[in-house]
Amino acid sequence: MMRRLPPLASLRTFEAAARQESFKKAAAELGVTATAVSHQIRQLEAYLDVSLFERQTRKVQLTVEGRSLYPALRAALDTMAEAVEAVRKRPRRRIATLSATVAFTAKLLVPRVGTLRSLHPGWDLRLHASDDTVDLNAGDADAAIRYGLGHYAGMTALPLLTDRFAPVCSHRLGLREPADLPGATLLHFDWGPIASTVDVPNWRSWARRAGIDHLDPDSGISFNDESSAIQAAIAGQGVALLSLSLVADELASGVLVQPFGPIMEGLKFSFVYPEGAESRPAVAVLKDWVLAEFAER
């Protein structure tokens, strides 16, 4: 339903003049001239086709019509002011967005999300899980945990941990030594674009390090992501060359075992944000949380 109302400015001016019983005092309150107050009142009276004030030499008094309008208008303006103040004082939600690989997010970040809100109760956390590199300068995320050599153009990179890889499987497979591998199913995962720029751990390089020449390093089951290879190993579907950082909990609980070596050094996990962005509140919050969780690992 469309409301037929006079201009809000004239109503606000009338309420101030009626409360102060003076056009001059109303003008001082509203920050305008007494002439402007008088003009607004006359506009309102013309709209209503009634007189709202009896003008006297030193003060003004409400007419019957003015006394009828004033209480309801004052209550309405008070209600509006309270509503505006409540919205103005409502705390804004502050969100910090952190990007990381799917596997790192699932295995190392998700179990720790509660600690960020403990450190910074006024902040919400958004995790962006993707194996694609996000554009931090474009605002796709506030910061990221990246896996690589530890150097990223235009970015500040703080080292978190250096990864290590070894054969990992369910104890149900009964693997005891490298000589058992030819009879087992090898599990693989796609490293994505990073494999074209640096040497990454794989079964071929591991077999060479282990001195095994009777293993077909390309046989077995392949997955397009690391998380699926981890789940397949847990399910007893084969043996995978996995990040010991990502399966630390499963190794500690005995869900997975590392039956033998050698252990291969991988790349570095780094906390990354645009150069000069450390003063941004979201970056500072994420940095505080991530370093507290991983700096000593």
UniProtKB/TrEMBL annotation:
InterPro entries with a match to the protein in the record: LysR-type_TF_proteobact-type, LysR_HTH_N, LysR_subst-bd, WH-like_DNA-bd_sf, WH_DNA-bd_sf
Domain of life the protein comes from: Bacteria
Keywords: DNA-binding, Transcription, Transcription regulation
PROSITE patterns per the UniProt record, alphabetical: HTH_LYSR
Keyword Magnesium on entry: no
Homology family: Belongs to the LysR transcriptional regulatory family.
CDD domains, sorted: PBP2_GcdR_TrpI_HvrB_AmpR_like
HTH lysR-type domain ranges (all copies): 6-63
SUPFAM superfamilies attached to this UniProt entry: Periplasmic binding protein-like II, Winged helix' DNA-binding domain
Keyword rRNA processing: no
Organism: Labrys neptuniae
Protein name listed in UniProt: LysR substrate-binding domain-containing protein
Pfam assignment, any one: LysR_substrate
